[in-house]
Amino acid sequence: MNDERFNPPRLALLLLRYACRNSYQEALIGDLIEKFREGQTRAWFWRQTLAAVILNALGQLRSYWPHISYAATAVFLRCFFSDADFLKPLPKWLHWSSLPWPWSQLAFELSRHSLLALAALFTLSLGLIIERAFRWDRVVWTGLISLGVLALGHFSVDVFPWLHRPVPNDMYHRNFLIIPGSIRVALSFCGFFLAALLGCRGLASKRLHLNKLNSGATHLEI
Amino acid sequence: MEEMARSGFLGEFELMLLLAVMRLGEKAYGVPISTEIENHTGRDVALSSVYAALERLSEKGLVTSFQGEPTLERGGRAKRYFQMTPEGIRALKTTRAALTNLWSSIPLLEEGRL
Questions:
Q1: Which of A47, A62, A116, A219 could cross-link to A77 by cystine, CB 3.0-4.6 Å?
Q2: A42/A7 same-domain check
């Protein structure tokens, strides 16, 4: 039996090992190797590997649904309510003009977005309650990191001057981004999702620990 | 039947998996389970979807699993064997009863016109 026929694709095995971490990982790899050595092709092995990776990724997404709901709600609120009339007086209520810099600028430019991002924390809390993983520190950290991400995203525009143009006839000389709206929405979603991931990082590591406990696999290397 | 209605009926693939596990008895692990389904349905089955569905069934308490010894022909990986639980057997029986009832009450089928 030659080496090619006996050993499954090494890259596929690496993918299975690192991109497919779950409680049945070892048994699945063993089954795939067994069927491959019984005469299945390398193409078959790759198809099975890709199916396993995609299925695992979907499962992971499902396990992060509170984070995804939070990011989606925050983006939705920002898209549809950041210019709402009832939020327009918010910087005035915060007395932005009497605050020292940079708080004045933050209050003026970001207070509405921040309020909407914080309102979306309700969705995250609800998701964590349903998952029986609610803790105040997770929600507070997610809120704080979200505000940081918002500020970073907002002011990082200044690092890329070729990406913005001045708003016509704006008395405050504000700029707007020229990158397409869909990309901005996607970036915003990623930012909020990252904030939720970091804010609830204890939750993710607990899940991984549970998965490892469940797998309980001991194996010899090929 | 009432009990099954409370816990939810088995899906098509779950039903196939439970039947395969039952047919294989002590030899029920990933490879023979997928082969059994492929042989009897003519459908290509991804091994990962077999394991994902079996894990769901295990969470529902319909199957249990235990680990075998690592073997050289599997690259040193252990097999994971599955067994039916009494709840799993009950779920199969109630699903069969429900399906039989539904099939038998179709007049066109009974008269052989379909």
A1: A116
A2: yes
CATH classification of the domain holding B48: 1.10.10.10
Task: Quote the domain boundaries for residue A27.
Answer: 3-62
Cβ-based contacts under 8 A for chains A and B: 87
The mean per-residue pLDDT over the stretch B18-32 comes to 94
Q: Which residues of A touch B (CB under 8 A)?
A: 20, 22-24, 26-35, 37, 47-48, 51-52, 55-56, 59, 216-222
Locate the chain B residue with the closest alpha carbon to A16: B48
Give the SS3 label for residue A82. Answer: coil
Spell out the residues 6+ positions from residue A161 whose beta carbon is closer than 8 angstroms to its own. none
Residue range of the domain that includes B82: 2-98
Is A172 contained in some domain?
A: yes
Please check whether residues A88 and A56 belong to one and the same domain.
no
Cβ pair B78:A28 closer than 8 A: no
Q: Does B27 touch chain A if contact means CB atoms closer than 8 Å?
A: no
Q: What is the ipTM of this complex?
A: 0.85
Same domain, A33 and A71: no
Domain assignment present for residue B110? The answer is no
Given a cut of 70, whether residue A208 has pLDDT beyond it is no
Answer whether the bond into residue A66 is a cis peptide, omega within 30°. Answer: no
Do A69 and A40 sit in the same domain of this protein? no
Tell me, yes or no, whether A220 lies in a domain.
no
Best of B77, B80, B81 to disrupt the A interface by mutation (most A CBs within 10 Å)?
A: B77
Residue from the list A20, A27, A219 with its beta carbon closest to the beta carbon of B30: A27
DSSP assigned state of A167: P
pLDDT in tens, A143-189: 999 999 888 887 776 777 777 778 888 887 777 777 788 888 999 99
Burial annotation A88-114 (CB, 10 A radius, 16+ → b, else e): eeebeebebeeeeeeebebbbbbbbbb
- Chain B residues near residue A24 by CB distance under 8 angstroms: 51-52, 54-55, 80
B18 touches B92 (CB < 8 A): yes
